[in-house]
Design brief:
The protein is of the alpha+beta class. It contains 17 helices and 21 strands. The protein folds into three domains: about 5-145 and about 400-515, GroEL-like equatorial domain (GROEL, domain 1, Orthogonal Bundle), CATH 1.10.560.10; about 145-210 and about 360-395, TCP-1-like chaperonin intermediate domain (GROEL, domain 2); about 210-355, 3-Layer(bba) Sandwich (GroEL). The protein has helices spanning about 20-40, 65-70, 75-90, 95-115, 120-140, 145-160, 165-180, 255-280, 290-300, 310-320, 375-395, 405-420, 425-435, 440-445, 450-465, 480-485, 490-510, and strands at about 5-10, 15-20, 50, 55-60, 140-145, 190-200, 205-210, 210-215, 225-235, 280-285, 305, 325, 335-345, 350-355, 365-370, 400, 470, 480, 490, 515, 525. The strands form seven sheets. Strands 8, 9, 10, 11, 12, 13 and 14 form a seven-stranded mixed sheet that branches.
């Protein structure tokens, strides 16, 4: 008896897309994401307004912020978000470039797929093009030889972020902050704290040679200003510790109750007496400070702040050259931090504690001012991009021309390289070159220029050997020497963007089967019966 019964191996809640359909679907998702961020690229890029389910608003043109805040569902699009996050964490900038380039590489690969070129051939060609592009980048890059270039790098990174009018001032703050914390090429970017204060204009932003924390004095009876501060940092709670297990205390007479209360007070007084005797006049405590302890500290004229986050404690220690004490019986004056001034300041409805005038601080604060929280957030993102670029430039020691110049030059040399490669891989290398030109094309388009005319002129100049010619959109939509115009980017940012985009594109191209599971289900997807036709 031969009954044709289907064999079920997958539940009904699993949808499956195969072969060319799977590739087209993934490529389309990547193209859509790339198109969303493409209009934000460059100094004339537009902003996006993102409103979440609770009504919170973000206005930004920062690529990674847009991609992180969008509630993306498609798996291939989520992979592009990961590319942007990697770019941000590794080099701090270039997220939009990486996303646009990744989308264009897939769009151009689709043309080759339509010509019946196998995905593995395209992947091989793209890998060859990526290696050659990185080699060309190293050849074209020049050594970073002065601080003026670092400032230009910071200014280039901040274009298009709503900070153009003040980018000169903000770039000075960035260079000053990096200078303060740098030890050769060792730069811990986490040692730069960015504190936002609503009120006043962006031009009022400043660099503090010390730390500003979003905390106030534990008690109003304490002094609001301490000069020549000797700072004790402790992670010991200046309060009565609760027992770890449930405990009961039986009190049968008023005398016993009073004795118990007095013993608590004595314990707190002993702790505060040790602090007072040590000579410290400022205390930053990671944990709580009891009301009784506050009273004794205030009486002794000590400025104390409680519940300071561990990250801030470590920054204060780095800025003031102090150490965090875990045992109050071992307080030593050598462990104290030093600052010229510790002051509580009320600004813009906020109360902040300034620790400034530190000797050789290894942590500093950039104070950003602005009219609204949205402006402050966008300026913070601009400063973080600037910091990332400056640190990347110092680490790699090399820079490349911006304004699309480097992409046009790599594309030109890749086309020449493609002619030396046999087989169908050369078609993939040529499409890789075309994809790189999507960056200057987007820059021109976002500035209201004709992208075809701009690309044609850039190609013409690069063919004539002018390898640094790029778009100067900030200074009047001209094509000129990017180095001379101060449009400079770190080599490391470009290398990471090209590598990330290429890896993403090749990974997507190798996928020919997508299985998506949605919720619970018990039905099955029918598969061909391998025993069909057998008796």
């Amino acid at each position: 008896m031969n009954e044709k019964q289907p064999v079920y191996i997958l539940p009904e809640n699993v949808s499956r897309t195969l072969g060319r359909d799977a590739q087209r679907n993934n490529i389309l998702a990547a193209k859509v994401v790339a198109d969303i961020v493409k209009t934000t690229l460059g100094p004339k890029g537009m902003d996006k307004m993102l409103v979440d389910s609770t009504g919170n608003i973000i206005v930004t043109n920062d690529g990674v912020t847009i991609l992180e805040e969008m509630e993306i569902e498609h798996p291939a699009a989520k992979m592009m978000v990961e590319v942007a996050k990697t770019q941000e964490s590794e080099v701090g900038d270039g997220t939009t470039t990486a996303a646009v380039l990744g989308g264009k590489l897939l769009e151009n690969a689709e043309k080759l797929l339509d010509r019946k070129i196998h995905p593995t051939i395209i992947v091989k060609g793209y890998k060859m093009a990526e290696e050659k592009a990185l080699e060309i980048l190293n050849e074209v890059a020049i050594l970073l030889d002065n601080k003026k270039i670092l400032k230009q790098i910071a200014m280039t990174a901040m274009t298009g972020k709503g900070a153009e009018e003040h980018r000169d001032k903000l770039s000075d703050l960035i260079i000053g902050a990096v200078d303060a914390i740098a030890t050769g090429k060792e730069i811990n970017i986490d040692a730069i704290k960015i504190q936002k204060i609503k009120g006043d204009g962006i031009k009022e932003s400043e660099l503090i040679q010390g730390i500003v924390i979003d905390k106030e004095r534990a008690n109003n009876a304490m002094p609001s200003l301490v000069k020549e501060a000797k700072i004790l940092l402790t992670d010991v709670a200046l309060e009565i510790r609760n027992p770890e297990t449930e405990a009961k205390i039986s009190v049968s007479t008023p005398e016993q109750l009073e004795s118990f209360i007095l013993s608590e007070e004595k314990y707190l007084k002993d702790m505060t007496d040790r602090i007072i005797a040590s000579g410290a006049n400022v205390v930053f405590c990671q944990k709580g400070i009891d009301d009784v302890a506050q009273y004794y500290l205030a009486k002794a004229g000590i400025f104390a702040v409680r519940r300071v986050p561990r990250s801030d404690m470590e920054k204060i220690a780095s800025a003031t050259s102090g150490k965090i004490i875990s045992n109050l019986r071992e307080i030593s004056i050598e462990d104290f931090g030093y600052a010229e001034v510790v002051e509580e300041v009320k600004k813009g409805g906020e109360t902040l504690t300034y620790i400034k005038g530190c000797k050789n601080p290894k942590a500093v604060s950039i104070i950003i001012r602005g009219g609204t929280s949205h402006v402050l957030d966008e300026i913070e993102r601009a400063i973080k991009d600037g910091l990332g670029d400056v640190v990347s430039a110092i680490n790699s020691g090399k820079v490349v021309p911006g304004g699309g110049a480097i992409e046009i030059e790599i594309a030109k040399r890749l086309r020449a390289y493609a002619k030396t490669v046999g087989g169908r891989e050369q078609l993939a290398i040529e499409e890789f070159a075309n994809s790189l030109e999507s960056i200057p094309e987007a820059l021109a388009e976002n500035a209201g220029l004709d992208p075809i005319d701009s690309l044609a002129e850039l190609r013409k100049r690069h063919e004539a050997g002018k390898i640094n010619e790029g778009l100067n959109l900030y200074g009047g939509n001209a094509i000129e020497d990017s180095f001379a115009a101060g449009i400079i980017e770190p080599l490391k940012v470009k290398k990471q963007a090209i590598s990330s985009a290429s890896e993403f594109a090749t990974m997507i191209l190798r996928i020919d089967d997508v299985l998506v599971s949605r919720g619970a289900g018990k039905s099955r997807m029918p598969m061909p019966n391998p025993y069909e036709g057998m008796d």
